[in-house]
Design brief:
The chain has 351 residues and is mostly beta strands. The chain has a single domain (27-350), classed as Porin. The protein has helices spanning 2-21, 114-120, and strands spanning 22-39, 42-49, 56-66, 69-80, 85-86, 94-101, 104-112, 149-157, 164-171, 180-190, 193-203, 211-222, 227-237, 248-261, 264-276, 288-301, 306-318, 339-350. A 16-stranded antiparallel barrel has the order 1-3-4-6-7-8-9-10-11-12-13-14-15-16-17-18. The two termini are 40 Å apart. The model is unreliable at 1-20 and 278-286 (pLDDT under 50).
Length: 351
């Protein structure tokens, strides 16, 4: 019995030494809302997920290797909190391993790519919920899968201790059309001010003859009593579809404000999409499809981790535009030129 206790004590000593050199953190969020979406004449009522923050579960850790060098990992899975279902690919949100030091970070795996962060950083809705301007962004029929995250990416990020920053990512296709990606982002952030510019190219086919390109510039400024966000995104698809003489092109511009009032935060967003090359009329008489989004949200923080929120959004489509607020309930797709409306009343708890 004494030998067993001694062995346990020795093992505990080694475990304590190991724990001093590394750390592992469990984290996540659960976000659910009463959600109503009206797309044309199609109405959907549901218990929605991810109105304020994406529901998720993750584990991350870092190990001190000495000499200023560290190793880290980050595994994160999306969650439909209403049903308990996880993503089809479990660690779909992020699955990376990194080496970190004074040189910055080399990160390998599936992660948010630089071009997404160039505009997504400046969306106060966090690119989720009924009010995000991401509801206006199109892949233009290219079929690419790199507008948000990229698989098998090798990325470099500059140190976070300097105001100038850069983020570069490269990914091979590995036999998957629409996954071969190269992109980067550079920016400057100090005090209340931040600005960045980025560009990317994804090969939409394995032959390398069709490209989907994105260019973006975004920024924010915190005045104290309010914070201003803005970005401009240009998407181009080199594929010319039937009845069209040129490639597709889309521009999305957003301006947004947030107002902190005590434990509350008010958000207001306006975004506009203009898309050329989507109609059947050939240039120079091509129609331009237009869509406008307006959204507001009210957050009340019950604590640092728990918040209540209410959101409203409306998308107005003109000509052939067909953007809509996503709904988990299946319904007929309305005709082009309709209005899409959405409401959310929810609660978010992070841990």
């Amino acid at each position: 019995m004494k030998k067993s206790l001694l062995a346990l004590a020795v093992l505990g000593t080694f475990a304590g030494a190991a724990a001093a050199q590394s750390s592992v953190t469990l984290f996540g969020a659960v976000d659910l809302s009463l959600k109503y979406v009206e797309n044309g004449s199609v109405e959907n009522k549901q218990l929605g997920s991810d109105g304020l923050q994406s529901s998720r579960f993750g584990v991350r850790g870092v190990e001190d290797l000495g000499g200023g060098l560290r190793a880290g990992f980050h595994l994160e899975s999306g969650l439909n909190a209403g049903t308990g279902a996880s993503d089809a690919t479990f660690w779909q949100r992020r699955s990376t391993v990194s080496l970190l030091g004074g040189f910055g970070e080399v990160r390998l795996g599936r992660d948010l790519n630089p071009i997404f962060l160039t505009h997504g950083t400046y969306d106060p809705f966090g690119t989720i919920g009924v009010g995000t301007s991401f509801n206006l962004i199109s892949t233009l029929g290219s079929g690419v899968v790199t507008t948000v995250r990229t698989n098998n990416m090798v990325a470099y990020l500059t140190p976070t201790t300097i105001p100038f920053y850069a983020h570069i990512g490269v990914a091979p296709s590995e036999g998957v059309a629409g996954n071969k990606f190269v992109g980067g982002r550079v920016g400057f952030g100090t005090g209340p001010f931040d600005i960045s510019i980025g560009a990317s190219k994804t090969e939409a086919d394995l032959a390398g003859t069709l490209d989907y390109e994105q260019k973006a510039i975004g920024g924010s400024f915190d005045f104290g009593f309010m914070k201003l966000f803005a970005y401009y995104l240009l998407n181009e698809n080199s594929r010319a579809l039937a009845g069209e003489s040129t490639a597709r092109e889309q521009s999305v511009a957003q301006i947004a404000l947030t107002f902190p009032i005590g434990q509350s935060l008010i958000k207001a967003v306006y975004a506009r999409s203009e898309m050329d090359g989507t109609g059947t009329v050939v240039a120079p008489f091509r129609s331009i499809d237009e869509a406008d989004l307006f959204a507001v949200q009210y957050n009340y923080n019950l604590s640092r981790r728990t918040a209540l929120y209410a959101s409203y959004s409306q998308i107005s489509n003109d000509n052939g535009a067909n953007f809509q607020i996503p709904s988990a309930v299946a319904g007929a797709s309305p005709a082009a030129g309709f209005k899409s409306k959405g409401y959310e009343f929810g609660v978010r708890h992070a841990f």
